Structure formats: structure tokens, C-alpha cells
């Protein structure tokens, strides 16, 4: 039994509010337990220098935490004048994950900027960011379809992420909250498509190691959790659901 | 008549949600029309080097906008690696304003960090930040009283801010939203205490000038608006209102 | 009576030496008591990216202190690798102030760079900078008229600045020197045109507040001081005085 | 058949030269095909601030490429003034991996600095870095044992890393060189201990996805390759091999 | 004959104004032709970390140009956020030169900060800086003697610098002004003591080379010029001249 | 007699390995005693902005040390986020030196990037860098001749560098290793062409001075050493030696 009373294979409550802010083409507030992330998707009509003339689009992500999203206040990265390694790792992960399910040729020379700003953190901010960012991105691209800029939604499949891990006593668990994350021996983030294929798999032993059996159990947990999350995403993108015809 | 239908001396709807995030000692979401700012107050048990040994406390503020708080996306200041002049100006203003109504000796060698993060912008973000930050700070200091760390709330008076300005046709108006702000010839921010004394007065002609008469009219407008705002603040700090005995 | 023997409404000695350095189009050494600032105006034949194609000109300012302009040595901002918030605030103020009295359309796509370098500081460096910068700018633009690049001096009015404040005993005073500035409860910078209209008004209570009556008294003091300064500026720009026909 | 003539499960030639430079406590040049990395381990008699007083040691890594380690010259990160996200990701990975097999309590308040400098790159620089860094670290810690600073080698197991991936035609391969890496649909780095347990698993679909079956095949390939590498490491640490009694 | 009418072995007019600014312990304005540099010496009662506990003092220098010291405006190094290689080279040269004639043990754990700020440049700013800095340093150390902080002036000899060079026609000249410097094939800076010994010698062929004979001629020119400069320095430090008993 | 047993006018063993890395157009590992530097020359088909349209080429150098090239580990400059003054001085020196012997007009609008990376340091890293960089540059330009991009090798003469110095006992010595460099009173770097003309001469008294006689002795030592080095370079560039017809 987990401290929160959750089963080992039980997700926290997940809620996705769409159109959370008014300016962004796609805007979402995703809540996973006590973790809350604003995911905004912005469309820019050009691509970074290394892609100009390719005819292809690009998706890139930025991630940040409000200084007091956490138990103790963190120094603001703009004040420090540089972005931490952890932040860079996360924003590269979010961007790479989203690009895996989008037809970049179909969006033309446009950049989709994804901004994930954590306003409250309780573990799993990077996976919540990916899950929310997918919805924000669908909303932004859906608008381009409505405006006849794109013919159809250039999205190949659903995409979501969740964490799994191994507690000190060896129990494998799904969706770690902060107190669990801080003691876990193994922490793994799984990014998966609606069809159940992997996009990213990042497993880390924290001064510890894990066996292939433990890996298998964790992947089963992730699979179960992500299938529940895909349903929540499906509800959130409601009006664009039919465009997202994946078969 | 203003585009929004407001009278020249009419505030936008103002709403203050308290305890907006769970970790900060004081947390507020302030909404002024379409401007929304999260104001978090954090208490740290030490002061910056230049104040050590003084026995006095310190209050400092940081301000930022989410990249997509605005009509078009702004580059994140952490990515740029430096904070803009505008941001610095605003955070210095917020900190100075709050320090004017706090008894710094009474809070001892502690720092109150104020984080104002604009999640949606439609003009007046710096004044909304000050107004919201005051409430967040009262909540944080109130908790110190409840925990018997402080004997009484070390706050000398209410504090709020509002903008006033002069439209191209010469009309003085209260509480400029973005479309007004971008065309106004004069833009003035007034920071005032509950007793009606000034803490800060920053009036700027935008490639234009203003007369002393216009100044007087703007100050009258600000006075009217701020008195309405003090009531909203009073409601927001409800449980600590009695501690804030200003007479 | 003030420590220096000055009356409350008495300026320090002000002196403006023109053509102080040889390369700048306009160069001035302004002395206000013991405050000395070199103000150089440079003309560049292009504007910043955000103004290209507008047909309008731009005026921008930079401000710095020599490390030993002050009682104790300050770390050089180039060594620190970043400009302080105070510096940014001041250079934005100088630029904005000058733009208010210049016909930017008339100067065409040119940038006037104003460099204010404080070589000795004794309070009032930002107001001395504005007063001196105005003269340097007139000299630089005057040369463009002499070279037939511009038809006439694109300046709408004189511009100068002065500080006023309130001492701890409640006395309002004009033109604060450092010892007064460091104890004053209120510090206000007034930027005014020759016609007596405000361009900028920045009043700040230093852990203190001020009333509307005090504001009025301070504005009267500023008005008196600035009218004396306009005469000194008029003498300094001697050869261009007739071009600056303001009526 | 691969372009290089290698079998799908065949490693490139791997060579580890020890004592490559004279100053470092542990110094290794590791060659994996055309990839060459200098791995230096330095011992410092203190730990970073966040660990002081813990009695525990720390291991941290830095990674860089010579500008012309690659086909076209890269801008030096010291000239750019900041470290890229890719570099940060890699150095965090190396440090985390090594910490998993070291008894940090046993090394006391010391930091082992690992510097991995790629002098020639042909794919797999991060895995070669980990494999070489392990040997450099053993050499450095071995010296501490010889000097009686440590009683025994505080290392729990061998540690090495290798890449596996999936080519566009679906073939899973071991140890990708650059031409393979640049076209692969899936790229996975596996960090494993001598006992065959995972320390890190980072699998990434490059605008592609992978199934659980493909994951299993890749893990089998990695397992085979890493067991060959452990033998090469065992030879390299020759004199300390007996100290590294893992049973 | 040189464009300026000077002989090949003729210095420009050199003038040293002492006590140029009021706060610095030693302050000098040195004028060499049209080159003008403010040299301020500040005394700080501690040394940099690498010298703490050594009982010795330290001398360090910073050098900067006002943006418009030159024909066209340079970007301010504080705005660029970094100091150029040229600036670093010069400030290291100034510091090293001064340290050669000071008894660092005698000044105790104090740092003498030398700030050389070029307000107008016409060639030879680094040599003028050294020559002026020596005087400023003597004034600052002299004050410490007057205050009985030091027993005697801890200076071993006079120190000055001058440039020599070779024009495209092969003529060796003394004290290059900007128009000469920009065409010279060889540029050499000579830093010498009153006794005629070298402290620094930096000769550079600008896409050209020089022979040993040319070197000898240039050293003779430098020797002549520097002996004239020592006399000017002697006059400048008047009241401390007797302290500087060099025999 | 020197600690190493060398004569005062004896070089350390010098070895130049060509084609050390595979990607660079010219690649050299130079060994001078225990000092080892990788010198890579890269050809880029464009010049920096300030030279565009000039038809001329450019040569620029970057220099770095591996963190553990030295006795104690240095902080990596990319981690510090800025390049030290020492590094800048050295890379400017290398670039300037090489440009003196190259016909920049003949190479057309191309940049030759020279990267000198010190992998092991024992004194004389800057002079070894110049000597090695010359060979790497010849190899790179030689390839352009072989590919018929250039008609002939645009090199005017051999170029090499060596250090000379004065020990505390007054002995002048050639080619200082680290233990000598750290105690020497005078340290001079001499950059010379095959014809025996100077390109750079940088002599520095370390809290000491030197006479003209000492200078002469040091130049004689340098001359002797450099003539030996030119022979080693000649061997290293073997296949291009005939192209480098200097008469």
C-alpha cells in the first residue's frame, strides 16, 4: 500500500482544462494529483535556420518551473542567467517526443512552440508536460485546419507519458508522486503512442540498478496507465477527435 | 466612452483568489480584466549579505511573464540568459513599494521573496502584481503570526497600485487595458497606501508631455480606483483583517 | 538650512563645457556641484531592427559610472558581465526623455546614441545626464543641419531634469546632493520641457510615503530650478540657439 | 550486412590505453573504431556544497569535444559562453552512471572529477566515455588504496555502456558508428553492470517509434556487446583487478 | 618628416593633471597628444583569494574606453556582457608592469586597483595608461605614508611606457599616433624603469616582420622618449618626489 | 646545469606527428618534452563579417587546455562560461603570428581555423602551439593545392616559436619547462621566420626587470633553438616541402 492509499498500478487524478489562457493557439492546464502544468502551443510562420528551405515544419519545447512551484523556493533561471542541465534535458525530451507523432512535412515551414510552465510540482512534471503538451498541440494544429491553412490534422497518433519506478522494498509502482520519487531506487519515464509503441524510454538507477524482470514489470504498469491517459486526452481534444482518425 | 464600454473612471473586474498554489506561504491569483498574475510570497530565514547583522528583514520581488502571456510569443528570459531592462524596472518597483508599508525591523532577519508571474497579460501587469503581492505578503506574514514567530502583523497600511493615463484625444482614464496602453500619450502608475499617501508615482509621456492639470486629474482617478481596490484586498485577507488594524 | 549652506530652493553651481571630446558629433561635460558627467552624442546612419523601414529615427542612451566615481570603488559592469537594474532604469529614462522633445520623423532613419559617463558622482547623476545629454544632442543635430543633412533642427523644446525630495524633518528641497539623497524620505526626479510640461515624473518613498501637498511643493521647487537650468542650456548651445526657435 | 562489413551483433575494435597523460590520477585513451576519447579522473579532497558534512564522496563528470573532432568544425563551447543541452545531458549521464557502482560512503568527503574529451568522433562518444571513465576512475581510486588513503577499492561492480539501434529497414544493430547513427530510427544507450543489471536505459525514436519486441532484441545485443567490453576493461585495470573482487 | 610635423624621435605633448577626481586615493588625467586617459588608483584593505594569508599586497588594473573615445562609436563592453581580448591583454599588461616596481611585501595585504578609462583615443592608449597609472599609484601610496599606514613609499623605481614602430617605408618612429599606428608594419610597446631596464617588451609585426637591427633602433628611440617622460612624471608626483629616493 | 640535465641552450625533445586526427584538413600532435598539443587546421569557405568582399582570406586561432593537462585540475572554460584573459592573449598571438607568413590575398575568401588543444602541459604551451599550428596549416593549405583550389602554397616562410628566460641566478636559458618557468625572473616568447626575422617578441619581467644585454643573450638563444626547430618542421611537412620554396 502506498502512503497516498493508491494501489501500485493506480494513477493519480488527472484533469485537463483546455483554453486555459486566451492568447495561445492551444492552451491547456493539466493537473496530475498535485502537479499542475500550463502547456501553451504557439504557431510561428517560420522554422529555425537549420531547417529553412526544407519545406518541413519543426516542433520545439521550453519547460520551466515557477520559483515556488516546489516545497522550497528555487532561484529563477532567468536570474541565474542560464538554464540548468535538468531543464535542458526535459525540454529536449518534450520536443523529441512530440515530433515522433507529427507529420512534419504536412505542417510546412512552421514552428510549433510548446511552453510547459509548472505552477505546482509534486513529481512527474516532465511526463505531465508531455501529456498536456500533446493536447495543446492538437488544439493549435486543429485551429490551422479550421482556418484551412492545413488540410487535415497532421498527427499520426496519440502521445502521452508516465513515470514508473521501483521503491526501496522492491515494489514496482505507477505514477510516482514527489515523496515516492525522492526515495525510489529506479525511476523510469515512458513515452508511448496510442498504438502502444515506445517513443522514449528513460530508466535510471539512483545509486542503484535494475534487472530485466523489473523493467518488464515497469513497462506493464506504464502500459496500463497510459491507456487510461489516452482516454482523458481523447475527451480533452473533443472537437478535434474526429480529425484524429487513427486506425 | 471607452472601447470596452467602461467609464473613464471605471476599474475592470478585479478578483483575488487566495491559496492558489499549495507550497508558498502566501499565494494569490489576481485577475484584473484579462490580466492574470500569480503572486507567491516565500519566507526565507536569512537576509542578503548587505543586510546581515542589521537585525532587519528584507523584501524583494521577481517578475516574469510566461512566453505566451501576450498576443505574440516572447522569448523566455532564461533562454536569452538575461533579464530585460523592463523586467528589472518592474521587480525593483514591486519590492520598493512593498517595503514602504512593512516594519522591516519587526520581521527580523528574514527575507520575503515575492514572485509575480504573469500568465495572461492585457495591460497593467505591474500594478496588478503590486496589488496581488500585497495580499500574498499579508498571508505569508500572517502565518508567521499564527505560528508565534512574529507577535503581530508587521504591516503599517494597505498598499495597492493602478495605472492612469491620457488618451490621444486628451481624455484622462483609469486602469488602462492593453489597447488603451498602446496608444496612450501618457501612462502613469500610482502606488498608494490605504491612508491615501503616495509610495511611488511614475508618469511617462510617450513621445508626448503632460501638464500639471492633467496630473491632478489622473491622481484623482487613481485615488478613486485605489479606494475600491483596498476593499477587494480587505476581503481577500479576511482572516488576517483584524490583525491589520490601521487607525 | 542645508549642510552645504544652500537654501531649500537653491541649485548647486551648474556648468556645461561643450566640445569636451573631439570625436563625438556632440560632446559635453556637465558639472552640477561635485557631480560630473561626460555626455556624448553620436549619429549612426541606421536604426534598430524594430524600426527599419519606418522612415523614423531613434534616440537611445547608455549610462555608466567610472568605477571610482564614488566614495568606494564599484565593480565595473563590463567585468561583472551584466548591467545592473539601476543602470538599465537610468538609460531607459534618458532615452525616453529625449525622444519626447525630438521630431523623430524629421531625423530620418538615423539613431542618435547618447553616452552618459559619470566621472565623479555626488547625487543627481541621472538628472545631470539628461540635462547634459539634451545639449550634446542639440550639438549633434545642429551639425547635421550645418551639413544640410537636415533642413532644420528637429527639436520641439528645451528639456532638462532635476531632483527634488523630502528630508526626514519634512523639509522639501531642490537638487539633492549625495548626503541629502542618502537620508531623504522621498526622492523625485522631474523631467520637464521649456514650456513647463512634464515628460517624466518619478517619485519614490524610501520606506516612507508622501502626501499630495508634499508633491505640489516639490513640483514648485522643480519648476523654479528647471527654469534656471534652461537658461544655462540656452547659453551652452549658443550657435544653435536661433535654430531652436520655440514659440 | 553493414556498410563496415560488421555483423549486426559485432562491436568495433576497442582499445584502452592507460596512463595516457601524466598529471591525472587516472588517465585513459579509449578507442572504439574511429571514436577516441581521453578520460581523465582527478581526485579532489572536498565535495560540492550540497554534500558537505555528509561524510560521503561525490563523482561528477564533464564532457567536451574538440572543435574538429567531427566532420565539420563545431564552435567551441567556451567561445559560445555556454554549454549545450546535449553536452549537459551527456555529462549528467556519465556522472550518474559511475555513481551507481561506487560506494560513495567509502570514499569519504572527496570528489572524483571525470573529464571526457573527445578528440575524434565517429558515433558512440557518450558510451565510449562511460566505458573509458570507469577504467580511469578505477585507476584513480586504486592509487588511493596504494597510498593507504582508502582501505579497499570502493567499487561494487564493473560498468560499461554501448549503443544499440534500429536501422530504417528494421534491423537491430549493436554499436552504431556515425553513418548508422545518423539514419537510425531508434537509438538506445544501455549502461550495465558486470552482473548484467541496468544502470541507465535511454531509448529514443527519431521521428519514429519502437515496439517491445524490438526493445528485447536490442537489450540482447547490448548484453552480448557489454560482456565483451567488461573483458577489455578487466585487462585495462590489470594491477587493480584483484582489488575489484566482485562475487 | 611625419604628417604631424614631428621628428621621428619626438614625443607628442604630454601633460599630467593630478587629483583629477575627488574620491580616488590617486587620480590623474594624462594627455598624450590627443589621447586622454583618466587613471584612478583605489586602495582596498584586502587581497584576492589566491593571496590571502601571504602577507603580500596586490596590484591589479582595469582598462576601458568610453564608447565614443574613438572616431566611430564602439559598443560598450558592459552591454556586450563581456570584455574583449584586447581589453584583457591591456589590463593584464598594466597590472604586471606596475607590480614590477612595487615592493608588494611592504604594502601588506592590500590591493591597489588601477582604473584606466580612456576618454579620447588617438593611439598609444595602453602606454599612456601605464605612464599615468604609475603617477596615480604613487599618489595613492603616498597618502598611505602620510597617514602612517606605510613607513615609506614602497616603490623601487619610476615606470613609464611608450610605443615605437616601423612605418611602411622602413622608418623607425617614436610615439605613434592613430594614423601612424594604423599603417605601421611593426608596433612595439616598451615598458621601462627609471634605471633603463625593461619590464615589458611587446613587438608585433602586422602581417610583416622585423630584423634585429630594426629592433635596436626602436629600443634607442624608446629609451630617449622614456627618459623625457620620467621627468614629466617626476614633476607630477612633486610632493612625493623626495620619498621616491632611487639611487 | 639545469635540473633536467639540459644545457642552457638545449631544446627539449621535439616530435611532430602529422595526420593525428582524421577529420581536420591539417592535424598535428606536437610534443615538446612533456608538453603535448593537438593542432588542427580547418578550412572554411567564408571569412568573418569585417572581411567580406575584400577578396582576402583570414586565419584565426583558438587555444584551450584539457582541465587535467596540468598538475591540478583547472575549471573548464566552457563551464565558467567565459574565456580567461590568458587564453585570449594566447589565441590572438597564435593567429597574428601565422598571418605574418601567409599571403592572405592568395587564399581568397576563406578562413583557416587553427585549434590548439593542450592535452598535457609542462611549460611552453603557447610556443609549441605556434610551431605545431604552422605545420597543421601547411598541411591544410597543401591539400587545397592538391585539389587545385589554390595554385601554389601561399606561404612566405617557415614560422616557429620558442621561449627563453632568465633564471633567478641570472642565467639565460632556452626552452623553459614548467619548473623553470615558475621561478624565472624573465620570460620571453620569440616568434621568428625561417629567414630569422621577428614576428612577435614578448618579454616580461615577473616582478623583475631585464637589461638590454640580457635581451641580446636571450635573442641569441632563441635564434639557435628556432633554427633547429625549422628542420623538424621541414621533416614534418615532407610532401609539401617542395611547394614551400623559400629563397
UniProtKB/TrEMBL annotation, chains A, B, C, D, E, F:
It is an enzyme of class 2 (transferase). GO terms for molecular function: 3'-5'-RNA exonuclease activity; tRNA binding; tRNA nucleotidyltransferase activity. It comes from the Bacteria. It catalyses: tRNA(n+1) + phosphate = tRNA(n) + a ribonucleoside 5'-diphosphate. Residues 10-140, 157-224 form the Exoribonuclease phosphorolytic domain. GO terms for biological process: rRNA 3'-end processing; rRNA catabolic process; tRNA processing. Phosphate binds at residues 86, 124-126. InterPro entries: ExoRNase_PH_dom1, ExoRNase_PH_dom2, ExoRNase_PH_dom2_sf, PNPase/RNase_PH_dom_sf, Ribosomal_Su5_D2-typ_SF, RNase_PH, RNase_PH_bac-type, RNase_PH_CS. Its EC number is 2.7.7.56. The keyword rRNA processing applies. The keyword Thylakoid does not apply. Transmembrane segments: none annotated. Pfam families: RNase_PH, RNase_PH_C. Keywords: Nucleotidyltransferase, RNA-binding, rRNA processing, Transferase, tRNA processing, tRNA-binding. Belongs to the RNase PH family. Phosphorolytic 3'-5' exoribonuclease that plays an important role in tRNA 3'-end maturation. Removes nucleotide residues following the 3'-CCA terminus of tRNAs; can also add nucleotides to the ends of RNA molecules by using nucleoside diphosphates as substrates, but this may not be physiologically important. Probably plays a role in initiation of 16S rRNA degradation (leading to ribosome degradation) during starvation. Homohexameric ring arranged as a trimer of dimers. This is Ribonuclease PH. The gene is rph.
Amino acid at each position: 500500500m502506498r502512503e497516498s492509499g493508491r494501489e501500485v498500478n493506480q494513477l493519480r487524478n488527472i484533469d485537463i482544462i483546455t483554453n486555459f489562457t486566451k492568447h495561445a493557439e492551444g492552451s491547456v492546464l493539466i493537473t496530475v494529483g498535485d502537479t499542475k502544468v500550463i502547456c501553451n502551443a504557439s504557431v510561428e510562420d517560420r522554422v529555425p535556420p537549420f531547417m529553412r528551405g526544407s519545406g518541413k515544419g519543426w516542433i520545439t519545447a521550453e519547460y520551466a518551473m515557477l520559483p515556488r512551484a516546489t516545497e522550497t523556493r528555487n532561484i529563477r533561471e532567468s536570474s541565474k542567467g542560464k538554464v540548468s542541465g535538468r531543464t535542458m534535458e526535459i525540454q529536449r525530451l518534450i520536443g523529441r517526443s512530440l515530433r515522433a507523432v507529427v507529420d512534419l512535412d504536412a505542417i510546412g515551414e512552421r514552428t510549433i512552440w510548446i511552453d510547459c510552465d509548472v505552477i505546482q510540482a509534486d513529481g512527474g512534471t516532465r511526463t505531465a508536460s508531455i501529456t498536456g503538451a500533446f493536447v495543446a498541440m492538437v488544439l493549435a494544429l486543429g485551429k490551422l485546419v479550421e482556418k484551412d491553412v492545413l488540410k487535415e490534422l497532421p498527427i499520426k497518433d496519440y502521445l502521452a507519458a508516465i513515470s514508473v519506478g521501483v521503491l526501496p522494498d522492491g515494489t514496482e509502482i505507477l505514477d510516482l508522486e514527489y515523496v515516492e520519487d525522492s526515495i525510489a531506487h529506479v525511476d523510469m519515464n515512458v513515452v508511448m503512442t496510442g498504438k502502444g509503441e515506445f517513443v522514449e524510454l528513460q530508466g535510471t538507477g539512483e545509486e542503484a540498478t535494475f534487472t530485466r524482470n523489473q523493467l518488464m514489470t515497469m513497462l506493464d504498469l506504464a502500459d496500463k496507465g497510459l491507456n487510461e491517459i489516452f482516454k482523458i486526452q481523447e475527451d480533452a481534444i473533443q472537437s478535434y477527435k474526429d480529425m484524429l482518425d487513427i486506425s
